[in-house]
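S.,

Sequence below, as promised.
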Amino acid sequence: MKPFAKSLITFVSLTLFGATQAQNATLLKQQNLHKWGVTPANYSGITHIEGNSYALVSDKEQIDGIYIFDIDINPVSGKVKSVVPHAISGVAGSKTRDAEGICFCPQRNSVFVSAEDDQQIIEYSLDGKPTGSKLDVPPMFSRDSIFPNCGFESLAYDSAARRFYTATERPLKRDNSKDTALVRILAFDEHLAPCAQYAYVLEQPTLNNKAKYYVHGVSEITALPDGRLVVMERELNVKANYVGSECRIRLFTVNPSEGEPMTSHIAKPLYKTALPIFPPTWT
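The prediction came back faster than expected:
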């Protein structure tokens, strides 16, 4: 569930320094892409392919597939210089899956798309057609095991370690607790098989949950070149008439290689480092 009210894309520039230095993120201003023919849509995920080519998914399309956009960005300011949108590629008449997360796998030259409707992570060729392969999601993450509309929202791929990462937006029903909001980060190996789970504990909520729609959880994961993950926690409060609705975003880095994989017990949660978000730097 990642609705976009307007034809806007928000870019977050992650400036990562050495291990002994601070880690910062600069939030760049939203940019209206209408002048390049990008009409309003419910884009829910984006991944870089190569050069200026990006693949996107939308959770409100009538067919199952992907978009390819050519986006030129100023590498210093993050400002969009030009966009060439391509029509959605996919299978006409196919059942939509409530697509949420997407990642590019260079070793397979394909993308994987996670979806909340079926709780599957399916591989697609770059022309938007399913290849027939998918990540082997354990039964404990099935559609019946999640809260409605709070499944696989995120998806990332670490090309160096050849690992996929995802998490349900909210804790599984089996993990739901008033004391600790524990989300399982699920890892898959290059053979598409599950290889580890890591305990990730959400921050304490800050918004009033008395709303038409309220959710607090992991909405996205990004893999960094050094093996760490950037985890986005989103808290959303949507009022009945939408006036006064609030959304708060927090970013954290975690390192699965330094964590304790979960087995039959609840392991020690991953150590989280807050990633400060600074305001836009250009006008």
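The chain is about 0% helix and 45% strand.

Coffee later?
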